[in-house]
Each structure stands twice: as C-alpha cells, then as structure tokens.
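This part of the workshop introduces the protein records we will be handling. An example says more than a description, so a record of this kind follows:
>
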Amino acid sequence: MTQVQNPLLNTTGLIDYAAIKPTDIAPAIDQLAQALQNTITQITAPETPATWEAVVQPLELATLAFTRAWGVVGHLQSVVDTPELRDAYNAKLPMVTQLFIDLSQNEALFAKYRAMKASDSFSMLSDVRRRIIDREIRDFRLSGAELPEKERTRVKAIGERLSMLNQKFSENLLDATNAWHLLIEDESRLAGLPADTKAMYAANAKAAGQTGWRITLHFPSYLPVMQYADDRALRETVYRAFATRAAEFDDAKFDNTPLIKEILQLRQEESSLLGFANYAEASLATKMADTPKEVIAFLRDLASRAKPYAQKDMTALRAFAKETLGIDDLQPWDQAYASEKLRQARYSYSDQEVKQYFTEPTVFAGLFHLAETLYGIKIRQSTASTWHPDVKFFEVFRDDQPVAAFYADLYAREGKRSGAWMDSDRTRCYVNGELQTPVAYLVCNFAPGIDGRPATMTHDDVTTLFHEFGHCLHHLLTQQTEVAVSGISGVEWDAVELPSQFMENFAWEWDVVQNLTHHIDTGASLPRELFDKMLAAKNFQSGMACVRQVEFALFDMLLHTSFDPNKDDVQALLNDVRQEVAVSFPPAYNRFPQSFAHIFAGGYAAGYYSYKWAEVLSADAFSAFEETGILNPQTGQRFMNEILARGSSRDAMDNFVAFRGRKPTIDALMRHSGMADNK
C-alpha cells in the first residue's frame, strides 16, 4: 500500500489544499522545524566558513520550506477556520514563535553574519547580497541579539506572548462577528434594501435552517443595512452590534479590552529593552519614514488640509438629512444611509444601479486586459486543488512561458476572516538550481452570486479588487531571485501599499472601465453618461474619508509614542484624536479599538499611517501615466522594471525616484482627492 505524503511537506510545488487535514499540521511542522534546526546547527558550527554559500543559502532554503508550510496553515486558518483547524494551529503556534525568536537572537548565527560583513570577500558580493547581509545584521540587533542574556530572554518571552495575544485578538473578533445575527421575519422592515441583498439574507436564513431574512455582521451583510434600510431602528440595532463587537458589552469570552492593554504594555517594554524611547521608534527602524515626529507631522498636515473639506461635507450631509429625510439629529447609523441618498440626489445614480454593470467575470477580464496591456503578460484561468469550491486559480504567462500564478478567493462566508488582503504562497527564487515561480493569494469578502447568477460588484468592490491585485502584481512580477528581496519580501511597510493604491486609480479611467462592465440582465456596457456621474461623484465626501483615515493613523501612532498603557485610557486617547481631526463622532458605546485588527492582530502597529503615506507615492506615480497616456505600455514597462520587479533589492525611495525622476510630492494626492486648492 502506497503511503500518502503529507501535503504540507510539498514545499516547492503547488499545494494540494483539498487534501490537507488538521491532523497533518503537527507532523509536518515538527519535521520541517527539525530540518531547520539541523541546518542552523550545521551553519553555526565553528568549522563552517562565514560565506554566503555556506551560511546564507542553506539557511534561506530551510527557512523557505518551513515558512511555506506554516504560511499555508495560517492562510487556511484565515479562510476556512474550523475548531479542529484552529486547535491544530494554536497547538503549534508557541513552538513556531519560539523557533523564530531563537533564530533572530542566535548569537552564533549573528557572529557569522558579522564575520561576512567584516571579510575581504564582502566587497566582492553583489549589491543585493551585501544589502541582505546588512539588513540581517540590523534585524538581529532589533531582535535583541546584542542584549545581555537576562534582557535577551525577556525580549524572547515578550515575543512569544505577543504572538499568542495577536492570535487571540483575531479569534475573538472573528468569533464575535460570527456569533451575532438578526432574523427578520417581517419583510416590511427591509424596505429600501436592494433585491439581491434581500435574496442573500434569505439564502443565509435558509442555510441556517431558518425562515425569513438573516442579517449578520459580515461586511457584505452589514453595509447594505447601513446604506439602504429605511428602518432607522434596524440600522441602529445592526450598527450597535457591529460597533460593540469583541468589547465589554459582548460575551465576556470575546472581549479584546484586556488584550489591548497587555499588548501595549508588552510592546512598550520590548522597545525599551531594545533601546528605543517607544514602540513607534522601533517600528520605524525598518520603514521609509525616519521618526514618529515626522509621521505625526505628516498626518497633522494632511488633516489640516482635509478638515475644511470634511466640515463642508458634514454640514451638507446634516442639512440634507434634516431637510429631505426628516432626520434632525444625524447619528452614525444614519450617515451611510443619508450619504447614499444625498449622492443619488446630487448625481442621479445609486451604487445599486452601478453594481448591475460590474459582473465578476467581466471585471476580471477587464482587469487582466489592463495588466496584460501595461506589463506584457497573459493571465489564464487554470485548475488546481483549492481550499473551497469558490476559489479560482490563474496562471501568468510571458512569451508563452508560465512565470507566476495566484488563487482568488472572493466571497464572504462563515469561518473566513473579514476584509481583503494579499499574501504570498510561494516566492520567486532558485531551489536546488531550479527557478521557482511565485504564487500569491488574493482574498476578498464580496457578496456571492445568488441562484446561479454571476456575482455583481459595487464600484467600491472593484477598487478593492484592483487594490489587492496591485499587491499580487508586486509579488508576481518580481525579477529578483534572492529570497530576502523577492516579490514583497522585505519591502518597507510604508511603501508596500504603493503598487496596490496605484492600481486603484485605473478603476476611475473610462478607457479601463469600458472593459469591466456587462449588465447582468441586458449585457449592456456601462453608459458613458452614468460613468460621468460616477466621476463627478468620485470625490464625494473625500474630505470626510481622508480625515477618517488620518484619525485611525494618528490614533495608532500616538498610541505607540506618548501613550502610557499602565495609566492612560485607550478610548480617551481616541476621543482626543477625534476632537482634533474628526467631523463625525460615534456614540460613547462605540468600541472601535477592540476591532482594530490591523494594529492589534496584523502588522500595522505604528504603521497604519502607511496607507496615507503610500497614497502620496501612488498618486504621484499614477500622474506619470496621466502625462504619457493611461494605457501607455512604455510607461507601464518602466513602472514594472523600476518598482514591481525590484522587490526590496533597493530602498523604496530609490525605486520611486528611478521611476519618477524625483522624490514624491503631495500635490497629486490632493488633486486626485479634489482638495488641491486648499493650502
């Protein structure tokens, strides 16, 4: 009888996702961890020469195999979470965390890298390899490798604890989201909601063995209530449930409040041990921005430019709500509803009308056509083992040769983390002399098609898809072959959003949009008249949107600089930030921090500003296409060569300057946002 190999041990080919069982996780991770440990023992032995070939290459290959398998496990836990999978993941998480902390503090390995740096042969290495060694030495220091043993041990313990807390924060948020639903039995309460949304609610109820319409807190279910439900009490009920997820008002076992305090305490302690004044300083050590002061100044400058526009937006919204909708006291659960009504009144179209034109197959075809035009590639749907029947698999070709591939998992469902993201499955590099092509995950949470009809997408959905596809292209079109700089690996966190936000601009260009639309009933393309209305409305409430993002970013940065987690109150800080920059103020029960997974469960702590920072870069980069032609292949080729293909082989600023011929300015962003005349 042939023994079936554990699918997680396939560290180079495509993964057989459908075959993975929770019971595969422990033996695969244990085996690969042992192989990595053996490699570390071998390369740190006194007799092993401190050379690239003897130290770096074997370490990279062993680490690559391990992180590929563990990355697959983490991905599955994000998209098809089950109690069994979660238990298997959490059972290995402490060991994995400890392994990487030990690796980051390994004195013998640190000594090998310092010896390589000091050797006569260092100058003979390529620019990229010298850069990798320099960066590894920096990272050793940031991990506490130079600290005395007592402090080094404490940094390790903090890292292990933070890993568990980040995971628990994410689990609590997912579980709290999954735990709540509202069953509507009287259809009249759904007045104003689109037919396809009601069909989705009915399908949700049927799947749960209920009769009626089931509303959940997953975003494709939550947002339509906020935007379209005429029943104000219904909007308030759903808003309150969403705004209090994973907080003290929720089931106690989901409460993220104590986790937030401990996370902040540990981050502050860790940064102090490493010689930084605060966690933000430690975070920025690997980013484009130099200091927290620089970031805070950038955010406050942006807020000062945007707030007058935001105030005008809010004044107009309050007046419309009072005069037209009879809402004298505009509340947060009214804002999306009133905004949609105002947009319809001002520009004579609705999101729901536009949505009928953006059918998923046509959007994908148009998106692929854009990438093919700019970058000289071809994208074709193919077949591969997947983790869910809805997942699609695509291959990328250049000159008829396969160069990359990606999975697209587009729809919201139970057991899938909310939001949209891209992640790496496989990195472009040489493995045992063979070139391994990159593979990526593209994950969204759109509403699925109902009754066999294709899914339709709002224009916001389309821009989200373009955003995540921009991340994918950054990873897939790399020309680097050194693991540490290939694709998105090692790219400064405040620059990694450049390719994604850059792609969003194309979703507003008529030459592109024409190829994205096919009405779900008539097959007609989006009329130019309707697009012109969308374009006129593009910067509708852009001031409010800008200060909202600045609010998140400034809160994050201040939380990790001047905030004392031992005595200060998180909610009070957020309230202070809102008083400074916001024009909309939620009710006292709103607990946004408890669901702010970006900074408490993701990688954006003291880094959320990177969205606005990179928006400056992306707007300026896109202006080069405005100058030479939106679909200019020559400009596309330059963007690919100088930014996408470079990975982190150069500093992000050097990549930008090589493409644009100068450093970025904020002018293009303000112009694209309709705020160019404000000084």
In short: The mean pLDDT is 95. Residues 7-104+106-142 form a domain with the Glutathione S-transferase Yfyf (Class Pi); Chain A, domain 2 fold (CATH 1.20.1050.40). Strands lie at 181-184, 213-216, 378-382, 392-398, 401-411, 421-426, 429-431, 434-436, 439-446.
